[in-house]
Design goal:
four-stranded parallel beta sheet; globular; alpha/beta; about 10% strand
Length: about 525
């Protein structure tokens, strides 16, 4: 098997050590690993940080940063002779317009935070002085008790899918294979989202303790922490917490911890694409089933959890599943919500799951200007109009409204924003970040961007948009993963709620995704 015989898992690490894809690097890594040089080149060119080692300062062109005039920031760098290039999103939406330099990562400005409160599971503003009592309790009471508390708590995956955590944990436990792995998904890349960054920076012990609990309860010896490449300070924070917990005896030597840097690919936030990256390959999603709990890292049962999700586990076990469930409103638990864009105090706010945007805006100092629209869950969630200010921000309610909570990366748009430009910014992002594996996504994202650019070049000519519904239908029905399935949502929602900005006086015709006969008007 190539994976074991050729040391393929070392490919990305060695490319990183070499400073990216520079002349001669593919051949050298081939000699070190026995992986064909063509494969190494294909892997390196897949990841932005490896393929463009001399990009210099990277300027974010995510929606929040575009609205804060990142183009002017880029022009300033160019005028001063600073090497600079655009990046899809840098995970610094609270500091828009954001930029990042690989060799000189600077901390972001302190974001707005919820005041410390005992009824917050994460409590970002609290003291990170974990005594690791939850780990000791879990080891005393056993895996059956832990999984029952997780089920009682109603804890759902906080990375975007909202999948019940206890099902994943039990899924790994029930496998006959005893070689198992725990993977932390800290490759936070959804535009508008930066909550995991703050958890790793401010409450790293919660993350380390949650991972240790998972490993001991599921019989895993190896824990892999896959941290976004642009989050070097967050990775260092986790490493420091691990060292401290080990030094004071909170963790024993039975677990092996492995830190892995992401290399610039939004798609690696998808759990199976992340596994491909861990195995030294291009981060392309796998077909499911089988699911990672059955066949994951190295073909073995694997638990993959988002940073916020795993950081909730200590509170669930110390205070009880019922307590955690009671902290929510329409669904279980408290939740970290990110606010950026036209808001007075961009930041991360912990609130009951199901809180309204009206309430969050009060916590964040209100809208700058007059609210026009918002993305409730990052770029993938599309847009909702201002009249939905009081909708419950939870998984089920937003799904019923044709959107999604996703990663809870809320971007606020005021009435100075042109929705065509907003939809175009999101289309550019998805085209840049499509892995290219499946045609509906690879071609569809390109068509969306090109069509919006043609409309922008001939404003008012809605005829250029006539084929868009069929394209969007095909992307939603036939794309392998959530990127392609949701990439059209920013445009489709903008057309739905703001048709007049696309040269129409009524709602754009919608494609019925439940129509088994294929594309057609609803």
């Amino acid at each position: 098997m190539l994976l074991r015989n050729s040391r393929r898992e070392e490919v990305l690490e060695k490319l990183d050590e070499a400073g990216g894809l520079r002349p001669g690097v593919a051949g050298k890594v081939h000699l070190d690993t026995a992986v064909p040089a063509a494969d190494i080149y294909g892997v390196a060119t897949f990841y932005h940080l490896l393929a463009e080692p001399d990009a210099g300062v990277r300027v974010c062109q995510g929606l929040s940063c575009k609205m804060a005039d990142s183009d002017a920031l880029m022009a300033d760098f160019k005028q001063r002779g600073v090497a600079a290039s655009y990046a899809s999103c840098l995970g610094r939406c609270d500091a828009a317009p954001a930029y990042w330099e690989a060799q000189a990562e600077a901390p972001t400005l302190t974001p707005g935070l919820s005041p410390s409160h005992p009824d917050q599971a994460i409590d970002l503003a609290g003291q990170d002085d974990q005594p690791y009592d939850a780990l000791r309790t879990a080891r005393e009471r056993g895996a059956d008790w832990v999984c029952q508390e997780l089920e009682t708590s109603g804890l759902q995956g906080r990375g975007g899918a909202g999948f019940p955590s206890f099902i994943k944990w039990n899924g790994v436990r029930r496998q006959a294979e005893t070689e198992r792995y725990i993977v932390l998904n800290a490759d936070e890349g959804e535009p508008g989202t930066f909550k995991d960054r703050e958890v790793m920076l401010r409450r790293p012990h919660l993350v380390i303790e949650g991972l240790a609990i998972a490993a001991h309860m599921l019989g895993a010896e190896d824990i892999y922490l896959y941290v976004r490449g642009e989050f070097g300070l967050a990775r260092d924070s986790l490493a420091a917490a691990l060292h401290e917990a080990t030094a004071r005896g909170d963790l024993d030597d039975s677990l092996s911890w492995h830190f892995v840097d992401g290399h610039g690919a939004y798609i690696c936030g998808e759990e199976t694409a992340l596994l491909e990256a861990l195995e030294g390959k291009r981060g392309m999603p796998r077909l499911k089933p089988p699911f990672p709990v059955e066949i994951g890292f190295r073909g073995k049962p694997t638990l993959i959890q988002n940073v916020e999700t795993i950081a909730c586990v200590p509170a669930v076990l110390l205070r009880g599943g019922e307590w955690f469930r009671s902290q929510g409103r329409s669904e279980a638990g408290s939740k970290l919500y990110c606010l950026s864009g036209h808001v007075a105090r961009p930041g991360v706010y912990e609130a009951p799951l199901g809180v309204s945007l009206r309430e969050l805006l009060k916590m964040a100092g209100g809208v700058v200007g007059t609210l026009k629209a918002f993305s409730p869950g990052g770029a993938s969630s599309g847009f909702l109009p201002a009249n939905q200010l009081d909708i419950a921000l939870d998984f089920k309610t937003l799904a019923g409204a044709g959107s999604m909570l996703g990663s809870a990366g809320i971007v606020i748009l005021n009435d100075t924003v042109d929705m065509v430009d907003a939809a175009l910014a999101q289309a550019v992002f998805f085209e840049d970040e499509s892995c290219g594996q499946c045609a509906p996504c690879r071609i569809g994202t390109q068509i969306l961007r090109q069509t919006l650019e043609r409309y922008r070049a001939s404003p008012g000519d809605a005829s250029v948009l006539e084929e868009i519904p069929e394209v969007m239908w095909g992307m939603g029905e036939a794309s392998i993963c959530g990127l392609g399935q949701a990439a059209s949502w920013p445009l489709s929602s903008a057309l739905k709620y703001f048709p007049e900005e696309f040269g129409r006086g009524d709602q754009f015709r919608q494609i019925d995704r439940d129509d088994d006969q294929g594309p057609g008007e609803s």
